[in-house]
Specification:
The chain is of the alpha/beta class and 313 residues long. It folds into 2 domains: 112 residues, Rossmann fold (3-Layer(aba) Sandwich), CATH 3.40.50.720; 176 residues, Rossmann fold (3-Layer(aba) Sandwich). 35% of the residues lie in helices and 14% in strands. The protein has 11 helices and 12 strands. The strands form 2 sheets. Strands 8-7-6-9-10-11-12 form a 7-stranded parallel β-sheet. Strand 10, helix 10 and strand 11 form a beta-alpha-beta unit. The longest helix is centred in the C-terminal third of the chain and has 19 residues. The chain is globular, with a radius of gyration of 21 Å. Bound molecules: 2-keto-D-gluconic acid (8YV). The site of 2-keto-D-gluconic acid has 11 residues, from loops. Keywords: NAD, NADP, Oxidoreductase.
Length: 313
């Protein structure tokens, strides 16, 4: 397969790069600042694109690659891949589900705990010597608090399962009620937010879910409520979130994703009721290797005319 051109759109995993390089003719897009020139010379030999959460295959890239057969993304979310265009052109698309579910759910629970129990602030308190001057203030209990989940897919369910172990009543919102689910369904995000203490965003980013967390939802969650986002930044109207946190209309937030990554609103840096992580929910050695192996597995299956491991289109 070493003559097959594979275009990696940005750096995402040195292990994946190495594995791709040993099997295919790998093009690292980021090494070519003159994209148009690069495409003029190489576009017809590129049969696969490997994208990620931050850069995938948009309509322009797809149109510029006449030999493209498959987009094998190094992410579960496919909001950076033009799925409609791929369908239209008969281009296959794969993602990396399941292998990252546990890590993402673990981090969601981690963000809940660090936000409610102020773990980062506690750490700064000890390091800066403040403990010698007095005890840390009291924080907020997690066990038993009601958890509302937006999106009860693989990741949403894994978060629910974990939160249940903390004795939390679980409710959810999704496009339609899951009839086989024991959790309480709310037909709107506002109703869900009005009825939970902790609201977790765990749905895919689509036109429908863009800014699903808006001012009304934030106000429904209220000054004691906490928002956790391990989905995508654009799920949240970020300026509204920032002003709600500053004005005390929202109790706190644990955020792994942001609207304009890696830019994060600086107003958040001064807030102790906020925990910020740099889009790392799936970023463990074990999971990133499993994701890379799945990308390779899908490409190998495709080019040896076998069924894809995790097909989406
Ligand atoms: C990214 C993610 O893939 O899977 C997703 O949708 O957001 C992450 O797991 C990861 O950040 C690599 O870019």
């Amino acid at each position: 397969m070493d003559a097959i051109g594979v275009l990696m759109v940005c750096p995402m995993s040195p292990y994946l790069e190495q594995e791709l390089e040993s099997r295919f003719k790998l093009f690292r897009f980021w090494n070519f600042p003159q994209k148009k020139e690069f495409l003029k010379v190489n576009s017809s030999s590129i049969r696969a694109v490997v994208g990620t959460a931050t850069a995938g295959a948009d309509a322009d890239l797809i149109e510029s690659l006449p030999s493209l057969e498959i987009v094998a993304n190094f992410s579960v979310g496919l909001d950076k891949v033009d799925l409609v265009k791929c369908k239209e052109k008969g281009i296959r698309v794969t993602n990396t589900p399941d292998v990252l579910t546990e890590d993402v759910a673990d981090l969601a629970i981690g963000l809940i705990l660090t936000t409610l129990r102020r773990v980062c602030e506690c750490d700064r308190y000890v390091r800066s010597g403040l403990w010698k001057k007095g005890d840390f203030k009291l924080t907020t209990k997690f066990s038993g608090k009601s958890v509302g989940i937006i999106g009860l897919g693989r990741i949403g369910l894994a978060i629910a399962k974990r939160a249940e172990a903390f004795g939390c009543p679980i409710s959810y919102y999704s496009r339609s009620q899951k009839l086989d689910s024991k959790y309480k369904y709310f037909p709107s995000v506002i109703e869900l937010a009005s009825n939970c203490a902790i609201l977790v965003v765990a749905c895919p980013l689509t036109d429908e879910t863009h800014h699903i967390i808006n001012r009304k939802v934030i106000d429904a969650l209220g000054p004691k409520g906490v928002l956790i986002n391990i989905g995508r930044g654009p799920h949240v109207d970020e300026p509204e979130l920032v002003s709600a946190l500053i004005e005390g209309r929202l109790g706190g937030a644990g955020l792994d994703v942001f609207e304009h990554e890696p830019e994060v609103p600086e107003q958040l840096f001064g807030l102790d009721n906020v925990v910020l992580t740099p889009h790392v929910a799936s970023a463990t050695v074990e999971t990133r290797k499993a994701m890379a192996d799945l990308v390779i597995g899908n490409l190998e299956a495709h080019f040896s005319k076998k069924p894809l491991l995790t097909p989406v289109v």
